[in-house]
Write a structure and sequence with these properties.
The complex is a heterodimer of chains A (242) and B (355). Chain A is an alpha/beta fold. Chain A contains 7 helices and 10 strands. The two termini of chain A are 32 Å apart. Chain B has a 5-stranded mixed beta sheet, sandwiched between helices.
Chain lengths: 242, 355
């Protein structure tokens, strides 16, 4: 049974009201097109995430990737279509850092660890701090972190519950090359048979070596869904050019 | 030119934030101006006044004549006994109690009226004397008997400074609960998505209410310490006062948070809450007795739970009263808390659905 199934999902927003602009500003999800005054962010999107799969969701900025993530995480409801994730726990690393600015890195991890139904052992938190190279900033107030450390803290928070399905929305933004290698290695170790990772990126080469499957999304519709080619960048460019 | 470029930038900022700015420059000042509507008279004309028979010799006709005389400066209400009327006086349901003697139509007798007023309502000291004089004159013209109305004050006599302590406390509680707490919650809105995946907004808000409610307790201790330093005789930390503050905090904070989430945690919600606080200050009769300025004001005040909070808090701080006298008011506050929490839940449901 797949970890997540997305069937013919459509997501529309009403017009470009202030609320819509606020939502876009908060979520980073850019609307795609207008029909009858509505903004269509996703249009008939179908997708299957198999258990144990490292799945890439590729597309340029504003293609609908973040909207799809929010739907899978249950933060928004689709206008039409269905999303099922039987018995899967979901972790989410957001595109925009989503943590308490006035707590330190460790305090954020401690608070969100305590919020879990089944809090993981502190060893796991330590391994996140070490594996994602957060230790230099562990005692710094989160609101003062650089972009790279903010991204890594958000990634650690997404991984905190050891979720069955891990949603990573642009998880390497502002991260230095050394840390990128650490993160990729950490995620490769994390992905075991029963764990599914869906990573969204507009930078194809970031994750291609570890991806089992790729979905390319453009203007709210799926343009490709299959295995990545050896020349993944060329394949991606071809799909975008159409 | 730097200035032109910056003015252009400001114009864009204004356009992008039109809703909160309109609230700031239209709704807020309008609310304050609207607040003046409730101040219609400069002398008390509609204050509720209890009319009660002094003994068994008082007839229904005597009561009716006195009701007519009272209607010149107040709104007469009949009570079955002096004790019930004085209880109403303590609850600020009335501000004067007039004991009507019998034999008002006997030209050879003297009708001795006793007028009770509460010393605790300091702004009503002089008006109560004026009201007694008016009553004397009016009834003397209406009645065959000679009229002698005597003012008798009940309760302890706080200074104006002491009288203002519950008013100031209520100001603080309203601003803290209705404006400050929602603003603090809004400052963490960027974490709501993660909190929604790992917990629930309800749990988050419950923790806020607990922590900020306890901190409000520290605020009450500060008020108590300051009034003790000033030598005031005010029971800031009495159980009745603390219970009133706790319930007021719950319904005000829940209302403020309901507005916040109903408006998608926008900055405009803070301005709306500020406007609600302004209207609350103007309409709740926090300082003057209800009906002091207008009947309209009395009607509005009695619709607001903040009025009952103020009266209960004032009584708990300034008067040595039996707390059970205020059970009805505590009931209003409890009901307001339940309604406000229900509204908050509805606004959270709407917030999640709108996402």
């Amino acid at each position: 049974m797949p970890a997540v199934t997305v069937e013919d999902v459509e997501k529309r927003y009403r017009g470009r009201s202030r609320a819509d602009r606020l939502r876009s500003a908060v979520t980073g999800a850019e609307p795609q097109a207008r029909t009858d005054g509505a903004v269509v962010a996703l249009d008939g999107v179908s997708l299957t995430l198999e258990r144990g799969e490292f799945h890439g969701l590729l597309g340029p900025n504003g293609s609908g990737k973040t909207t799809l993530f929010r739907l899978i995480a249950g933060l928004e409801r689709p206008t039409a279509g269905t999303i099922s994730r039987p018995d899967a726990t979901v972790g989410y690393s957001f595109q925009r850092p989503c943590f308490f600015d006035d707590l330190t890195v460790r305090e954020n991890l401690r608070v969100f660890r305590s919020l879990q139904d089944d809090p993981p052992a502190w060893d796991w938190v330590e391994s996140l701090i070490d594996g994602l190279r957060l230790d230099p900033a562990a005692h710094r107030v989160a609101g003062t972190l650089s972009g790279g450390f903010s991204t890594k803290l958000d990634l650690a928070l997404g991984l905190l519950s050891r979720p069955d399905v891990l949603l990573l929305d642009e998880p390497l933004t502002d991260v230095d090359d050394y840390s990128r290698r650490r993160i990729r290695g950490f995620l490769a170790d994390y992905q075991r048979e029963d764990r599914t990772i869906l990573v969204s990126t507009h930078n194809v080469e970031d994750f291609v070596p570890v991806l089992d499957r790729v979905t390319v999304i453009l203007d709210g519709t799926v343009r490709f869904d299959g295995e990545p080619a050896e020349d993944a960048l060329g394949q991606y460019r071809e799909i975008l050019v159409g | 030119m730097d200035l032109i470029a910056l003015l252009y930038k400001e114009a864009i900022t204004v356009r992008r934030n039109l809703a909160p700015i309109l609230l700031l420059v239209v709704l807020l000042p309008s609310a304050f101006a609207l607040g003046t509507v409730v101040y219609q008279n400069t002398v008390p004309q509609d204050i509720p006044v209890a009319v009660v028979a002094a003994d068994e010799s008082t007839t229904e006709q005597d009561i009716q004549i006195v009701r007519e005389g009272v209607s010149i400066f107040g709104e007469p209400r009949e009570y079955g006994s002096t004790e019930a009327a004085v209880d109403a006086l303590k609850r600020e349901q009335v501000y004067l109690v007039i004991e009507v003697p019998g034999g008002l139509s006997d030209p050879n007798s003297t009708a001795n009226f006793t007028v009770h007023a509460d010393r605790g309502i300091v702004p009503f000291h002089e008006p109560s004397e004026v009201a007694t004089d008016i009553l004397n004159d009016e009834l003397d013209q209406l009645l065959a008997a000679d009229v002698n109305a005597r003012l008798e004050r009940v309760g302890r006599d706080p200074s104006l400074s002491e009288y203002l302590v519950p008013t100031a406390t209520m100001f603080f509680v309203v601003l803290y609960s209705l404006v400050f707490l929602p603003r603090q919650v809004r400052s963490e809105r960027q974490v709501f998505d993660r909190l929604r995946t790992d917990s629930s907004l309800e749990a988050v808000l419950a923790s806020k209410l607990v922590v900020w409610g306890l901190l409000l307790g520290v605020g009450m201790v500060s008020i108590g310490a300051m009034t003790a330093y000033l030598g005031y005789s005010v029971a800031v930390l009495s159980p009745l006062v603390l219970g009133t503050v706790a319930l007021s905090f719950v319904y005000l904070a829940a209302t403020g948070l309901a507005v916040l989430f109903a408006m998608d945690c926008s900055e405009s919600a803070i301005y709306v809450n500020f406007a609600i606080a302004g209207v609350t200050f103007a309409a709740s009769s926090l300082f003057f007795p209800v009906g002091f300025f207008s009947a309209l004001r009395a009607t509005i005040a009695r619709l607001l739970p903040t009025h009952y909070s103020t009266v209960t808090m004032r009584s708990g701080m300034l008067k040595s009263v039996d707390p059970t006298l205020y059970l009805e008011y505590v009931g209003y506050m409890l009901a307001a808390s339940v309604v406000a929490l229900a509204l908050l839940e509805l606004s959270l449901v709407r917030y999640r659905r709108a996402a």
